[in-house]
Every structure is written in C-alpha cells, then in structure tokens.
Amino acid sequence: MYKLHRHFCEQELVLTQRLLEETKDKIVKMSVLTPGGKAGVSWPVGVQEPHKPKSRFDVLKWDYFTETHVYLANDFSNVQELKGIHKQDVNDVITVAVERLTKKYGNQYKYSHLVNGYKRFDATRGLEYTIDLVLKNDNGEDLQKRVHLLRPLSLVEIVPMPYVTENSRVNLVLPISSSNRDGVVSFLDSYAHTCLDSGDSANLFIVFIYDPVNGKDDVFGVLKSMITYYENKYQNGARIAWISLHTSNPTEFTIMDAVSKKFAPESLLLLCTIGMELSTEFLNRVRMNTINGWQVFFPIGFYQYKPNLIYEEKPYPTTIEISKNVGHFDRSLYEQSSFYNSDYLSARKNGTEIDESKNDLFSMFVKQGKLHVFRAVEPALKHRYRHRVCNPALDEGAYQRCLVSRSQGLASRAQLAMLIFEHQQKVDKMHLKVLHKQNDPNVNHMNPNMLK
Fold first, then answer.
1. 125 and 150 in contact (C-beta within 8 Å)?
2. Which is nearest to 46 in space by CA: 158, 155, 157?
3. Are the beta carbons of 166 and 284 closer than 8 angstroms?
4. Residue of 174, 132, 123 lying closest to 153 (CA atoms)
5. Which of 252, 245, 278, 431 minimizes the C-alpha distance to 335?
6. How far is residue 57's CA from residue 414's CA, in Å, rounded to a whole number?
7. Nearest Cα to Cα of residue 121 among 50, 66, 53, 174
8. Backbone angles phi, psi at 352, to 5 degrees
9. Are 303 and 367 in contact (CB under 8 A)?
10. CB 378 within 8 Å of CB 299
11. How far is CA 282 from the centre of its chain?
12. pLDDT at 89
C-alpha cells in the first residue's frame, strides 16, 4: 500500500516539475514582447523582481557570514556565533549549492570550505544568498565558485481571526513588592488620568507581595491609604482591588495563580509592571489583539534609557519621547502580557511539567501550542527606566536575555562612547595638573597618591 502511494506521489512530483519548467519557458519566450525584453526577466524565472530602492534609506542591507559567525547582524553586536536555526540555515545553503555544482560539473570537484557569505531578506521575494565556495579537484588544486541562491516566500495567506471589539473590560494586574513600591504613586496617577477620568472600561487589581522574612510592620500601609483616597475621590469608585501574597520566591506563575482565582474565566487580564505608562491607545490595542481561546498578546514596549546618562541637566522631561536618544524597543523582555483567564487556566492545566522557577508566561503559552502568541512592537507602551536585577536561578536563556536588556538599557552606544570620551578627558587633565605640580618631566617619579 505504501509503495503504491509513493509511486503515485513520485509521478505527481515529476508532473509538477515538468509544468514548472514549461511555465518558465513560456515566460522567457513571452519576455521578448515586454518593454524590458529578455534582459528584464528576473531570476529565478517566475519570482518577483528584487526590491528597487528609491533612496539610500531604502537600500536593503546584506549580512556577511562565515561557517561559524555572522558579522554586524544588528546595531548592537559586531560578531555573533551561529547557533540553532541560523547555523542550520547556513549549512542547508552550502549543501544545496554543492549539490547544484556537483550536478553541473559532475564529481570532479569536492567541497573544501566557505570563503564569503552574504544574505539579505527581501520582503517582495524572500531570503537571498551569495556565497563563495572553494572546491578541490582530483589534483588538489583549489577552484573558487560564486553561487547565488534564493529561498522564495511561499504564497501569502490571510489567517482568519475571530471578530473582536474595543468594548471589553480590561483588568490591570499590578504586582508590587517592597523593592519597587516607590513607583506605585506614578502608576496610580496614570491609571486615574487614563481610566478613571476618561471613563475607560478598566479595573486595577494590585497584588501586594510580602516577604515572610520581614517583620510584622505593613510596608504597604501608605499605598493602601492611597487606594482609599482614590475610592473616596471618585463618585463611582476607583475600581481598585487588592490582595496580599506571602511568598519568598514570587514568580509570574505564583502571582497569576492567586489572581486567576479572583476573576471569572471570561475576564481579560493585562499583566503590568511598575514604570509603564498607561494610554487609551494601548488598552484598545490590548482588547483587539487578545482573543479568547485564540490568541495572547506580548507587546514589545519602548523602554527609556537611564536619565542621568542621556540628559545633560535637571529637571528631566516628564514625558517619554520615542527617539533613539531617549530609549529603545526592548525585544529581550516579556514582562507585559494580556490573555483571558480561561486561556491561562487551560495552559496551566496542560503545562504542569513546566519548571516555574526557570520559565515565564511566554514560554508556557509557546510550549502549549494551542494559542497564537502575538508578539509585536507597541509604540503606545512606554516604560520608564529602572535598574534591572537578573536572577542567576533563571533558565539560561532567560538569564542571558536579562543581562542583554540590562546592558543595552543604559544608553545608546553613541551616548556611552561620548561619556567615556569625556571621562577620559577629565582623567588626562588631572594627570597634566599632577605633572605640572611636580615639575618633573619623568613620569615614572610621579607620586601615585596625587592621583587620588
């Protein structure tokens, strides 16, 4: 039965390849009637033409790679080791190129090594490669060949999505610990201005995280009195609720397990962090991008750099402007997320084997595989700078992402370079003053105590 099925599949494949070749021949023959003639036929035949930039800002960048590393892949690294799917991608390209060269020249050449590799992504056609290979003949002589390859895009399809509206009520979940309680006042002001004053359909649910090691003093007493103040200020109430969570190791799972018990399965939950700025546009985007039983949303927010490194003098601006000198979109963080309570409960039920101390909500939803995990840049989500503490107990990937986020979140490379340059100038001036005071041209006799 299987042999019969394989035979008919092979016949269908041969027929399809024959039709493709006939279609290519027709395109080439008909090209003489077009304005560009045969010279205007794109390669490969039948694939969309390459992108033609209208200005220097539209030029697509080529990435240089070898068999082991890729160079200048992004704005934050000079060289990166090829790992995982990126390493497999390069190996596949080399394998296909060698197969085509063997088919053309026979077995008289053997692959030696890769000299140069270039690749770029063209949204109109796919991923293009240009590689230089060194081949050896039977006499041991080297022959270099340049090969052009294209991994074309398949037919683009529109994924059908359920209909949603912007009328859903959003429940903001804000975990607060003793280490980050200083920024709660700003968050409450943002919530009052965005949700309460405008009448937006949103509720705030605060989780006060207590460390069992601490004493009996309530470290959140002032914040609870502020919640009472907002409840009395607004006639219809501030729609703020809170619970206490006593744990020495708070994770996203322990927090959400306690929160999920307080809401109905059809409730829309938005996990927030201290420092983020609320806006009506962002809340509407949460409503549209979070679909019950279908999709969860993990936005990529704009994170502010450290203010004393990017601003020359105080007072610092009260608003965050989206600019390369003010902050950046941090792709390493998965702190903010929105999902329906029923989806979370279902994922927790099916993901009991997940190590809570080494995983997060994003990895849980991805491993579950039953929901679309939507990850996109969100310009309406702005986050103020805060010092980040990385826990070595996390999963290796999560720990490395935290280190990358902490290092890249200080300032831009140009700003950091300018700070180092200015600091070096001050050090050089100090050294000159010491030398002038000594009146001695011999630097080796300089007293080290004078540099303190």
1. yes
2. 155
3. yes
4. 123
5. 252
6. 20
7. 50
8. -70, -20
9. no
10. yes
11. 18
12. 94
Distance CA 291, CA 165 (A): 10
The tokens for 293 are 């039983």
Q: Please, what's the b/e burial string for 344-365 (b: 16 or more CB within 10 A of its CB; e: otherwise)? A: bbbbbeebeebeeebbbbbbbb
Give the pLDDT score at 165. 84
Relative to beta strand 63-65, strand 69-74 is: antiparallel
Token pair 């804000």 is found at: 174
Ranges of the chain whose pLDDT falls below 50 = 451-452
pLDDT at 180: 84
User: Per DSSP, which regions of 181-310 are E strands?
Assistant: 202-210, 240-246, 268-271, 276-277, 295-304
3-state secondary structure of 117: strand
Q: What is the pLDDT of residue 424?
A: 92
Report helix, strand or coil for 18: helix
| Residues 324, 303 contacting (CB under 8 angstroms) | no
| Among 156, 205, 152, 155, residue whose Cα is nearest residue 176 | 205
Distance, in Å, from the CA atom of 427 to the CA atom of 262, rounded to the nearest integer, reads: 58
pLDDT for the residue 22: 86
3-state secondary structure of 107: helix
Instruction: Return the pLDDT at 447.
Output: 52
Question: H or E element: which one contains 230?
Answer: helix 221-233
From the list 163, 420, 445, the residue with the least C-alpha distance to 309 is 420
Tell me the CA distances in angstroms from 193 to 97, 160, 197, 277, 286, one per residue in order.
60, 36, 5, 11, 18
Q: What is the pLDDT of residue 396?
A: 79
User: What pLDDT, on a 0 to 100 scale, did the predictor assign at position 47?
Assistant: 77
3-state secondary structure 260-296: HCCCCCCCEEEECCCCEECCHHHHHHHHHHCECCCEE
Q: How far apart are CA 304 and CA 340, in angstroms?
A: 29
Does this model's pTM top 0.85? My answer is no
Give dist(CA 208, CA 250) in Å, integer: 11
For 28, 114, 116, 150, the CA distances from 147, given in Å and listed in that order, are 22, 11, 11, 10
Predicted confidence at residue 395, as pLDDT, reads 76
Q: Which amino acid is at 404?
A: V
